[in-house]
Specification:
This protein is of the alpha+beta class. It has 15 helices and 32 strands.
Length: about 650
């Protein structure tokens, strides 16, 4: 069996000049840009981003070694740090002066650790003595201090997605102080402490920047702490501890991911999964914090799947010396030259590549034996629909032994998500119809994710082909169909008529008419006009289907016209006449329709009875037995005279 790689590197990586040919390579997490900087005379900079728009090359004066370089959002202003005291700025806005301007940090004796762009014209300096929030005026080539905060800082991290900066404070570095930025304001959030491993005195541990990462998982911001195995402490392996970073209230330890090994690790987030790369074994683990482990303490997680390496990647050779037949060179995975950035970026500076890490769902199917857990896992992933449908087919193909409870569990999980979407759609529609209410935020239309598997998806991709499979007992087929219908009913989802049709066709195909009769008698199959019509079409195979159909149409009460049409098409003209009388529709019935049907039977006495019935109706309603011109019954009057003579026509009664 080949090893199943459920992680892969993006096919089209961002390529940049690798480390051997430039002085420095920098990565900007906010814009996802790589800066390759070459010094000497003038400083040459080549910027590569996710697309051509964000890629640019330029030269600037060589004023010393570049410590940090980043564009503001939209490549409008470039910020470059060359000293510990100041940051230089260059305008890239068309028609603005390109001359450099400089901003020194305000705090005396402070050293600038780095900076973060918050907006196209808002920047934060992080110094070893605090944080300074500025607005940049590119036209005036100046900055204005909006807010500052004094605090001793060891190191910092920035999450561009949420605009939160995390500062490490205190001697051990394990008290973290977050600041949030929004609409030109800076807010100080509650500080919190990271629990460090206990070590015997006098040894002391301090929190390393390498062991902390910030990322959004399922829409919530977490600080991830890589807690290493301490040789002196009695803890056998490393773990990742997740602290939920609250905008209001205290940030708390919320999840523990058990790595069950030791060594060097790196973290990524892909599709709301925490991916932990392990360098020495050259494998990765994935964790889903929404999957609860039954045998673990609350919020303690084991890996979802067995450890696997990232799918092998081959680097195509390029350059003038390349021979067309030369094979691509395998890329060294888990290399020591790799740098990992949040959420899903891996950079190899030595090879000059930036990849996005991706999850492949098909290989996970055979690695996770518990189908209920597999379904929970798949339903939370982005591109899950076709994989989920293939899992449903796979379960049904796996034979009948003990699989019906599994099928029931899977159907219920799918229909729970389906129902939640339908309810969200209904409440959105109701809100739109009632108009905006005071004080309530505008409701957004619910997004239909790939996890919404509706009845047409199941019918088209799973159930219709399943009912036609050879070698499967009809009992199992019907049990599966009824299980799906049961699940839909449990979640109060209206069952579409084509699912009932599939049940009926399967029953008829296997001559299970007694079961069909029972299903209809006990309303297991809900009444509908399409179903009644299907039953009618089965009359030649199963004669009682005709009466079952009529009974269903009567129960529908809105189907009187259909019942009449059905009876007339079966040449049951008197039956149709009796039915229309029983529901009080005789006065408005079309005489021509009934006379046409009676004449087509060739039964003269039947034609006489129907003709006389409508003459009596006309007499009662209008005081005359004759037909109005609008009823278009002239040819039937002529036909009646030919058969029975003019004297047989009813005469107007004089009262």
């Amino acid at each position: 069996m080949t090893e199943e790689h459920y992680l892969e590197l993006s096919e089209n990586p961002v390529q940049f000049e690798h480390a051997s040919s430039v002085n420095n390579v920098f990565f900007d997490e906010a814009n996802k840009q790589v800066f390759a900087v070459r010094s000497g005379g003038a400083t040459g900079v080549v910027v590569k981003g996710p697309d051509d728009k964000s890629s640019v090359a330029f030269r600037m004066d060589d004023k010393g070694e570049v410590k940090c370089i980043k564009f503001s959002i939209g490549n409008k202003i470039l910020a470059v740090q060359r000293t510990l005291k100041s940051v230089d700025f260059i305008n890239f806005i068309p028609d603005y002066p390109h001359t450099e301007f400089t901003q020194e940090c305000k705090t005396k004796n402070a050293n600038v650790l780095g900076f973060c762009w918050i907006n196209w014209n808002e920047i934060v300096f992080i110094t070893d003595q605090g944080i300074e929030f500025y607005q940049v005026f590119p036209d005036k080539r100046s900055l204005k201090l909006l807010k500052s905060q004094s605090i001793n800082v060891n190191w910092y991290q920035y999450c561009p997605e949420t605009a939160v900066i995390l500062l490490s404070t205190t001697v051990q570095g394990n008290v973290l102080q977050p600041f949030a930025f929004r609409n030109g304001t800076m807010s100080k959030l509650s500080k919190f402490e990271i629990e460090l491993p206990v070590v015997p005195k006098p040894a002391k541990l301090s929190l390393s920047e390498r062991d902390i990462a910030m990322a959004t998982i399922y829409g919530q911001l977490y600080v991830m702490y890589l807690k290493h195995h301490s040789r002196t402490a009695n803890s056998p392996s490393a773990e990742v501890v997740l602290y939920h970073l609250a905008r209001e209230g205290v940030s708390k330890k919320s999840h523990v991911l058990k790595l069950n090994t030791t060594g060097k690790f790196a973290l990524n987030i892909v599709d709301n999964l925490v991916v932990v790369h392990h360098q020495s074994s050259q494998t990765s683990l994935i964790f889903d914090i929404k999957l609860k482990e039954p045998d673990c303490a609350v919020n303690t997680h084991q890996p979802v799947l067995p450890a696997r390496s990232i799918h092998p990647y081959r680097i195509p050779l390029s350059g003038p010396a390349v021979v067309p037949s030369q094979p691509p060179v395998p890329c060294q995975l888990y290399s020591s030259s790799w740098s990992v950035f949040q959420p899903d970026i891996i950079i190899s500076a030595s090879e000059g590549y930036l990849w996005y890490l991706q999850v492949k769902l098909p290989p996970t199917v055979n690695l996770l034996q518990d189908k209920g857990k597999l379904m929970d896992f798949l339903l939370r992933r982005r591109d899950c629909k076709m994989v989920i449908l293939s899992v449903c087919s796979q379960i049904l193909e796996g034979g009948e032994k003990g699989s019906l409870p599994v099928v029931a569990t899977v159907f219920d999980k799918l229909n729970q998500v389906y129902k939640e979407y339908l309810e969200a759609e209904q409440s959105y529609t109701a809100a739109m119809e009632s108009g905006p209410s005071r004080g309530s935020a505008a409701q957004k239309r619910p997004v239909r994710t790939q996890a919404v598997i509706d009845q047409s998806d199941m019918y088209t991709h799973v159930l219709s082909s399943f009912t036609e499979r050879k070698g499967v007992s009809h009992k199992f087929i019907i049990a599966v169909l009824m299980e799906y219908i049961r699940s839909l009913n449990q979640y109060q989802i209206t069952v579409q008529h084509y699912l009932y049709e599939l049940v009926i066709k399967t029953l008829v195909q296997h001559n299970l008419f007694y079961m069909l009769h029972q299903f209809l008698q006990y309303h297991v199959l809900s009444d509908s006009k399409p179903l009644a019509c299907l039953l009618l079409s089965l009359e030649s195979t199963y004669p009682p289907a005709h009466q079952l159909s009529l009974d269903m149409l009567k129960r529908l009460s809105t189907a009187n016209d259909e019942i009449v049409e059905v009876l007339l098409s079966k040449q049951q003209v008197l039956g149709a006449l009796r039915f229309i009388r029983s529901v009080g529709g005789h006065d408005n019935a079309s005489a021509r329709k009934f006379l046409d049907a009676a004449r087509q039977t060739g039964d003269q006495m039947l034609f006489y009875t129907v003709f006389r019935s409508f003459q009596q109706r006309n007499q009662r309603l209008r005081g005359s037995p004759g037909f109005n011109p609008g009823e278009h019954c002239e040819e039937h009057v002529v036909h009646f005279k030919q058969l029975f003579g003019e004297q047989a026509l009813m005469k107007p009664s004089t009262v």
